[in-house]
Design goal:
This protein is an alpha+beta fold and 195 residues long. Strand 9 and strand 10 form a beta hairpin.
Length: 195
């Protein structure tokens, strides 16, 4: 091989190396190293106290919402059910946690009927008003209960998005509402592969 050909080959290898991405090609927002979402202690709909450490070894998806939510919450839980279905045999390596921002109405009994209706493996988490406020603050989730209307009905404004942890228990991704099941499935697969 001549000198010119060797130089061209060396430059081609160098350029190819520069074009390779550094790290996984996530489709969701990469929040690796974020200084929030580090702690969570609430009770699940079976009555067991849960922390993030309980789910090490699994990818974990956490969504804050409430059972009387007319649209965002059931859509997100439906998308997470589609993700679990899409993962197939790897679905047992995913834990979805639905954290209520309405502990007044979302009792253990209510959550135990609502959350597993989307997928039997999903868990609903609740706490008293103080524990709920601490969890929302830790995850920087906005929560604002609206004044009750006729008949005492009310809504709760809240941030909409899903926090996704890798199997080592590190917060890695944020899925804004409406990004869809396909992007979440893609990125959760990467996390399960050790990315």
């Amino acid at each position: 091989m001549g000198r010119a050909a060797a130089l061209v080959l060396a430059l081609s290898v160098l350029i190819a190396g520069c074009n390779q991405s550094r790290g996984p090609a996530f489709e969701l927002t990469d929040v690796t190293g974020a200084g929030f979402g580090r702690e969570l202690t609430l009770t699940d709909h079976t009555g067991k106290t849960r922390t993030l450490a309980d789910f090490k070894g699994k990818a974990v998806a956490i969504f804050f919402g409430y059972t009387h939510c007319p649209d965002v919450c059931p859509v997100t839980l439906s998308e997470m059910a589609a993700v679990a279905n899409d993962l197939g045999k790897d679905a047992d390596r995913l834990q979805v946690l639905f954290v209520t921002v309405d502990p007044e109405r979302d009792t253990r009994e209510v959550l135990s009927k609502y959350v597993p209706a989307f997928n039997p493996a999903f868990l609903g988490l609740y706490g008293d008003a103080d524990a709920t406020a601490r969890a929302a603050k830790e995850f920087k989730v906005f929560v604002n209960k609206q004044p009750a209307g006729a008949g005492g009905a009310y809504t709760v404004d809240h941030s909409a998005g899903t926090f996704i942890y890798d199997p080592a228990g590190r917060l890695r991704l944020f899925a804004a509402y409406g990004q869809g099941a396909a992007k979440m499935s893609h990125d959760i697969r990467l996390l399960l592969q050790g990315q």
